[in-house]
Write a structure and sequence with these properties.
InterPro entries: PBP_domain, Phosphate_ABC_transporter. By secondary structure, the protein is an alpha/beta fold. The protein has ten helices and twelve strands. The protein has two domains: 106 residues, 3-Layer(aba) Sandwich (D-Maltodextrin-Binding Protein, domain 2); 125 residues, Periplasmic binding protein-like II (D-Maltodextrin-Binding Protein, domain 2).
């Protein structure tokens, strides 16, 4: 039988004081119980939360004793691909949280060296000073030259591109186009497309004469689509996706070879680059599990979907 406490009022002053004190105590206990209940509910909610593996997204914060997320940072070019791979991986391993952050290939290498990230994303060849990291190529891409779809120029040589980017040519008629100024778009320091471009043409960044520097592939494609006299270099795979999606741009034939995924696959296209994941040491645990997944047949269709060539093709 459930017991019940009944407080009966008394009429003298001492009784009234005692009654008020008991009411205050009961109220404090009720407040404490409500606060504890809210904390318990919050803990349950956090326990079931999860991230979606994309840059800028909210991810589950590990509670006391919970596993820390797998941190991935680096190349803007492959961040969308790695984000999609992370989502598929997390569907198989829901206990493993993943955070993916874009910021350029150099940042990816710096972050794994400094312990800020477990895995770095790099979309170019490693230079001599970067050979200390472990590298795992997952795909291949090219650096393509794009112009507006209405530009009559269809093809450029290496010498012509070099002259356009260093100020030697300033008008499209100098390369077979119309009488219009050449609007040169380049990339800021730290971008792998810039590093690959400079390496291929054997140029220093200081030698470039660009009208504007644009950080990522998507805004570069958008800028060329909006400027009929522009030229820029971007991820070949992303440019092909943009063209299929209706962007009014064209990939130029370069040194007699069409800029296409097929010519990246067979190695005929000149400006090639690997897309890779890097770690400070040989990967272990969740990092190894994720890299193995990215190298497996389970990742192949996503690599192609994002316009790249699986590395082992």
């Amino acid at each position: 039988m459930r017991s019940r406490c009944v407080f009966r009022p008394v009429r003298h002053a001492r009784g009234r004081r005692r009654e008020a004190g008991m009411r205050r105590a009961a109220s404090a206990l009720a407040t404490l119980a409500a606060a504890l209940a809210l904390l318990a509910l919050g803990a349950c909610g956090n326990e079931g939360a999860g991230g979606n593996g994309r840059a800028g997204a909210n991810t589950a914060q590990p509670g006391k004793g919970a596993q820390a997320p797998l941190r991935i940072s680096g190349s803007n070019t492959i961040e969308p691909l790695v984000g999609a791979l992370a989502e598929r991986f997390q569907a198989l391993y829901p206990a493993i949280a993943i955070e993916v952050t874009a910021g350029g290939s150099r940042r990816g290498i710096a972050d794994v060296r400094g312990g800020v990230a477990d895995i770095g994303m790099v979309s170019r060849n490693l230079n001599d000073a970067e050979q200390d990291v472990q590298s795992f190529p997952i795909a291949r891409d090219g650096v393509g030259l794009i112009v507006h779809r209405d530009n009559p120029v269809r093809e450029l040589s290496g010498a012509q591109v070099s002259a356009m980017y260093t100020g030697g040519f300033a008008n499209w008629r100098q390369v077979g186009g119309g009488d219009a100024p050449i609007i040169v778009y380049s990339r800021p320091n730290g971008r792998s497309s810039l590093d690959q471009f400079l390496e291929y043409f054997k140029l220093d960044k200081a030698a470039l004469r660009a009208h504007k520097e644009i950080g990522d592939n998507a805004p570069t494609i958008a800028a060329v689509a909006a400027e009929r006299n522009a030229i820029a270099f971007v991820s070949l795979g992303e440019a092909e996706i943009g063209i299929r999606g209706g962007a009014p741009i064209r990939l130029l034939v370069f040194d007699g070879v069409a800029a296409s995924a097929g010519n990246v696959r067979n190695g005929d296209y000149a400006i090639l680059r690997p897309l890779m994941l890097v770690t400070k040491d040989l990967p272990q645990g969740d990092a190894k599990k994720f890299i193995d997944f990215c190298l497996s047949a389970q990742a192949t269709d996503l690599v192609r979907k994002f316009g790249f060539i699986p590395y082992m093709d």
